[in-house]
């Protein structure tokens, strides 16, 4: 077994995860585990600007560095400024859960004494401690792959669930938005969008699910971005389905607050699905049949959650032309959602 890294009170640790929202949420168990094992050390996180708000109001995160990934690639002054901020923070250790090439080079140039990253990549040369595991096999959950990095540190508490902590003002704002939409009691939230990293259940199916649930007596709300809201509105008009929606009304933290108030959230394999889990809401996740996108690797971590996958066990559709998700029927989804809604924890 590797000897644990020697950290003293006051030492500073940086954890890097600069990719998508869902990836950052699934890194939170590692972040909180490390802080619980070294409460006397400062634990900071480097993340993408877009996803970074979910780190706020977390007492186990001491500081946040927010990065515009594209700017880091094209803007030398921006890159130089970030390097200076990292240097001035005097980190003893950096853990790159997602070893992106440009930030990996910055950690090396900042001369952080202990630089931990995965082996087997071109830019692994910038790290002096290597974790030997391959995520390409998709043998376990992404969160478990992140927790593998705890092997470099002393034993202690291991957090297994991600948590995001809405503030009271965000909860109040979400209540106002929902109230203005007409929500008066328990409700189901549908989030049909996707960040593009996985095949999706189509919007038309979400609209039909909305209609089925409403006719069964449930209150339903749809969320998403402003452009997604325009697509929802157009399809709702075409299908003659009046829709409650909060699309374009929430920033990321207010969305988290709204998700926390729902009884069930239904979404594709996307960041808001994991965000709903992180605020303690039960979810029904819709996943494609491709191994790289499987729920084994990317599924929700909640104990009461449901996952729907195509009836076809292994997808062999051409890239971008998957029809497997269509084998997940609206009736099947409605049964899972209503059962979860009516089931006590």
Give the SSE map.
Elements: E1 12-17, H1 21-25, H2 28-37, E2 42-48, E3 63-67, H3 69-74, H4 76-89, E4 93-96, H5 101-109, E5 114-118, E6 129-131, H6 142-147, H7 168-181, E7 187-191, H8 203-215, E8 219-222, H9 226-239, H10 252-261, E9 264-268, H11 271-278, E10 282-286, H12 295-298, E11 306-308, H13 330-342
Parallel strand pairs: 1-2, 1-4, 2-3, 4-5, 5-6, 7-8, 7-9, 9-10, 10-11
Cα separation of the termini? 40 Å
- List SSEs in N-to-C order: EHHEEHHEHEEHHEHEHHEHEHEH
State the name of the first-level CATH class of the largest domain.
Alpha Beta
Q: What is the count of structural domains?
A: 2
User: Spans of 5+ residues with little confidence (pLDDT < 50)?
Assistant: none
State the CATH architecture of the largest domain. 3-Layer(aba) Sandwich
Summarize the amount of helix as a percent range: 25-40%
Radius of gyration: 21 Å
Write structural notes for this entry.
The chain has 345 residues and is of the alpha/beta class. It has two domains: 12-152, Glycogen Phosphorylase B (Rossmann fold); 168-342, Rossmann fold (3-Layer(aba) Sandwich), CATH 3.40.50. Helix content is 37%, strand content 15%. The chain is built from 13 helices and eleven strands. The protein has helices at 21-25, 28-37, 69-74, 76-89, 101-109, 142-147, 168-181, 203-215, 226-239, 252-261, 271-278, 295-298, 330-342, and strands at residues 12-17, 42-48, 63-67, 93-96, 114-118, 129-131, 187-191, 219-222, 264-268, 282-286, 306-308. It has a six-stranded parallel β-sheet with strand order 3-2-1-4-5-6, sandwiched between helices. It has a five-stranded parallel β-sheet with strand order 8-7-9-10-11, with helices on both faces. Helix 5 links the parallel strand 4 and strand 5. The longest helix has 14 residues, at 76-89. The radius of gyration is 21 Å and the shape is globular.
């Amino acid at each position: 077994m590797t000897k644990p890294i020697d950290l003293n009170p006051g030492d500073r640790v940086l954890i890097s995860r600069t990719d998508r929202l869902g990836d950052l949420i699934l890194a939170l168990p590692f972040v909180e585990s490390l802080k619980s094992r070294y409460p006397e050390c400062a634990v900071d996180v480097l993340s993408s600007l877009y996803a970074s708000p979910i780190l706020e109001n977390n007492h186990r995160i001491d500081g946040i560095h927010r990065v515009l990934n594209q700017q880091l690639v094209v803007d030398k002054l921006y890159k130089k400024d970030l390097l200076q901020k990292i240097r001035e923070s005097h980190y003893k250790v950096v853990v790159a859960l997602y070893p992106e090439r440009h930030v990996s080079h910055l950690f090396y140039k900042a001369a952080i004494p202990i630089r931990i990253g995965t082996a087997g990549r071109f830019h692994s040369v910038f790290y002096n401690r290597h974790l030997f595991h391959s995520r390409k096999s998709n043998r376990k959950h992404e969160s478990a792959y992140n927790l593998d990095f705890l092997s470099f540190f002393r034993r202690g508490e291991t957090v297994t669930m991600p948590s995001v902590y809405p503030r009271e003002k965000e909860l109040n704002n979400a209540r106002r938005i929902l109230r203005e939409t007409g929500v008066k009691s328990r409700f189901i939230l549908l989030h049909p969008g996707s960040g593009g990293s996985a095949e999706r259940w189509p919007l038309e199916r979400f609209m039909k699910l909305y209609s089925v649930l409403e006719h069964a007596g449930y209150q339903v709300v749809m969320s998403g971005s402003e452009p997604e809201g325009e697509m929802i509105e157009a399809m709702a008009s075409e299908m003659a389905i009046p829709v409650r929606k909060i699309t374009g009304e929430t920033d990321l933290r207010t969305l988290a607050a709204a998700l926390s108030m729902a009884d069930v959230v239904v979404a594709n394999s996307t960041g808001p699905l994991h965000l709903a889990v992180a605020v303690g809401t039960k979810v029904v996740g819709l996943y494609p049949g491709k191994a790289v996108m499987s729920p084994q690797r990317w599924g929700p971590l909640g104990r009461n959650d449901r996952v729907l996958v195509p009836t076809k066990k292994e997808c062999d559709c051409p890239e971008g032309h998957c029809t497997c998700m269509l084998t997940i029927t609206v009736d099947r989804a409605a049964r899972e959602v209503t059962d979860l809604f009516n089931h006590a924890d």
